[in-house]
Amino acid sequence: MDVEITAGTVDDVAGLETLWLAMLDHHREVTGERWPMRGPGDSWDLCAGQYRTWLGEGSALLFLARPTAPEGGTREPVGYLLCQLLPSGPTFDLGPSHGEVHSLAVSGRARGGGIGSALLRACKRELRARGVTHWSIGVLEDNRDAVRLYERLGFSPWTRHLLARLDE
Ligand SMILES: CC(C)(COP(=O)(O)OP(=O)(O)OC[C@H]1O[C@@H](n2cnc3c(N)ncnc32)[C@H](O)[C@@H]1OP(=O)(O)O)[C@@H](O)C(=O)NCCC(=O)NCCS
Predict the structure, then answer these.
(1) 91 Cα: distance to centroid of ligand 1 (angstroms)
(2) How close is the Cα of 116 to the center of ligand 1, in Å?
(3) d(CA 117, CA 144)
(4) How far is the C-alpha of 24 from the C-alpha of 71, rounded, in Å?
(5) Are the CB atoms for 82 and 61 separated by under 8 Å?
(6) What is the SS3 assignment for 109?
(7) Which of 59, 90, 101, 150 sits a CA distance of 20 to 30 A from 158?
């Protein structure tokens, strides 16, 4: 599928619900029953609230992938990427702020066709144009396909998050 990558704004957030929920389903499939996960309504409300806050205050960038040929008369996004601009902490000197890819989702029917890579390239271009020198991305340990994609695009393992239950 041919897509056009454009920058998005807070006005585009409402149109991302289906893609966010598909990513949530994918995370559920990948992790199984291992960790408690939010239900779809709860998850999207929280997510949309965060997106609107970050985009409104200028601490995030949004990129949308829309089909160049309308599908059934619509050019709804088939993928998106949201990247936060985070202040550099006291340990690593990543410049005043670095990019953190918070969300990357491509609709199930469009996966494997280069759209995720194109979204990452567009984000990288914009970060570089802003003078940002580093970017990071968090990924579930079990999401091996995504890790392969990110390593191919130049990311290397950095920090590692561990999670444990305290109630058993
Ligand atoms: C990960 C994802 C954004 C990549 O977008 P994409 O458009 O499918 O990626 P591209 O076509 O540019 O690149 C294909 C590569 O993506 C990776 N990939 C990850 N998940 C994939 C999937 N479900 N289907 C196909 N490729 C996938 C593979 O490394 C693949 O390369 P390969 O040829 O080595 O198998 C997309 O597959 C997706 O939305 N997956 C489900 C949600 C998810 O895992 N999001 C990432 C959260 S960190």
Answers:
(1) 31
(2) 6
(3) 16
(4) 24
(5) yes
(6) helix
(7) 59
Mean pLDDT of the chain: 95
Q: What is the pLDDT of residues 26-78, one digit of tens each?
A: 999 999 888 999 999 999 999 999 999 999 999 999 999 999 987 777 889 99
Q: Give dist(CA 99, CA 11) in Å, integer.
A: 22
> What contacts 163, CB < 8 A, 6 or more positions away?
35
Q: Which CATH architecture has domain 3-152?
A: 3-Layer(aba) Sandwich (3.40)
Q: How far is the CA of 104 from the centre of ligand 1 (A)?
A: 9
Pairing of strands 97-106, 60-67: unpaired
Domain ranges of the chain: 3-152
The answer to whether the CB of 20 falls within 8 A of the CB of 104 is no
Atom 36 in ligand 1: which residue has the minimum CA distance? 106
Point out the ligand 1 atom lying closest to the alpha carbon of residue 103: 47
Classify 112 as helix, strand or coil.
coil
